[in-house]
Known about the structure:
- This protein is of the alpha+beta class.
- The protein has 2 helices and 2 strands, in the order E-E-H-H.
- The chain has helices spanning 20-37, 42-63; strands at residues 3-6, 9-12.
- The protein has a two-stranded antiparallel sheet.
- A hairpin with a 2-residue loop joins strand 1 (3-6) and strand 2.
Amino acid sequence: MKYKKGAGRITGATSWTEDPNAQIAAKLRALYQSVQEEAIPARFLDLLEKLDAAEQQSILQGRE
């Protein structure tokens, strides 16, 4: 294994599977993707619709 000095620390030429930072990054990517693929709960969608309606009502009342 070859080592090089960089940014005040010694870095090794290791594969990403041996690099703890790369492992953490890969796991975080997988977690983020799984969250993206989750469906939005109906209760949350209902709440968003109510908030939109309240905002529209507030805008209309402000114009009168």
